[in-house]
Amino acid sequence: MIPEGLTIAFMFAVGACVGSFLNVVIYRLPRDLSIVHPGSACPSCNTPIAFYDNIPLVSWLLLLGKCRKCKARISPRYFVIELLTALIFVGLYLVYFHFDLRKGVGGFYQTGFFLYLIQIIMISAFIAASAIDLELQVIPLSICWLVTAAGIIGSALAVYVYPFENIRFYNLFPSASAKTGILAAGAFIGLITSLLLLFKGIITTSYSEQTADNTNSQGENQQPENYKHRLEMLKEVVFLLPIMFGSFIANQVYQRVPGFQDWWIDFSQVPAVAGLLGSLWGYFIGCAVVWGTRIFGTFAFGKEAMGLGDVHLMGAAGAVIGPWPVVVAFFIAPFFGLVWAFICMFFKKMQQIPYGPFLSIGVLVVMILNDAVMNWLHFVFFH
């Protein structure tokens, strides 16, 4: 039996190392630089950083936040990201395996490692996305796609780690019923259709003439006040129509075609298929709740509301934590925004920040408090 203290120390060290890698991602990814090669170097003098100056947390403190050669200041962000990631690695471990805040997870060295791995991938990626959003006011879609892939693959494979009934009872991973599964399958076919239409040039992306210089922190576009934002939203509605139509047609087939419903129930409730479809459905719901807000907000106010980066961020979260939790996360995120707004009002020099970090905090809170959230939802809608 491995001592608890040793496991916690190991988690902290791994988290700090992951945080060090996230710093590389935060700096290089939005600048279209390789995150693999070359090795780390001082941004000011380009001197390669020796291994003993690249020890997470320790090196920054020993060097007093300065380059060993040119003495240029090294941003405190590097230390903060490493420490934050390390603390989250430890905190999530304690919440799940020490305080037992989530039921059904199992011991870390038994089954719990799998849920922990998928969710820590998401949170680590969201730390990087939030930091980039804060600095450059953009959320790289590649980060969201990585989390989405982890969620879909993890949900499909989870049935080989956990009993299927435990996955559903404790909401460990998304898992679709036959009805939500057919909606997810139809939406996926619609998404492929929309992407093909986009590739063929039959439909166009919104703000297709927008240059990178006019892009703000959440993927929003700075345009002249007379720019026809509502017309651009119509392009997005056109893109979404095949997705909505695909779900509608799939549901009609499910309801009306003789023999199909029985076949689909048997097929979709194969545990691995149910997990994959459940993650897909969570992805679509996560995207829908933000995209709907973006479209209706733009129509209502005549200016772009939210950003497509936020859409992909919440879609990725939905693929990992499922449709109901991601909706709750979206609706509690504004409360964190309000807290920051009050802080800005108190310290008048502080500025407003992009919405991506608040969405990420909402996802983290709902993920940790999953049992309480699901019990509340069950009481509200099924009591």
Q: What proportion of the residues form beta strands (DSSP E)? A: under 5%
| Helical coverage, percent range | 55-70%
> How many helices in DSSP terms?
14
Summed up, the domain count is: 2
Query: On the 0-100 scale, what is the average pLDDT?
Result: 90
Q: What's the end-to-end separation, in Å?
A: 43 Å
Structural class: mainly alpha
- Contiguous low-pLDDT stretches (5 residues minimum) are 211-221
What's the total number of strands?
Answer: 0
Largest sheet: none
How many whole angstroms does the radius of gyration measure? Answer: 22 Å
What spatial form do the alpha-carbon principal axes imply? globular
Helices and strands, in order, run as HHHHHHHHHHHHHH
Could you walk me through the main structural features you see in this protein, from its secondary elements to its overall organization?
- The structure is a single chain.
- The protein has 383 residues and is mainly alpha-helical.
- The chain folds into two domains: 4-99, no CATH class; 154-382, no CATH class.
- Helices cover 67% and strands 0% of the residues.
- The protein has helices spanning 4-28, 58-62, 76-97, 108-136, 141-157, 164-169, 178-199, 229-256, 260-268, 271-301, 308-321, 323-346, 356-368, 370-382.
- Helix 1 packs across helix 3, helix 1 packs parallel to helix 4 and helix 5 packs parallel to helix 11 (308-321).
- The longest helix has 31 residues, at 271-301.
- Mean pLDDT is 90; it is low at 211-221.
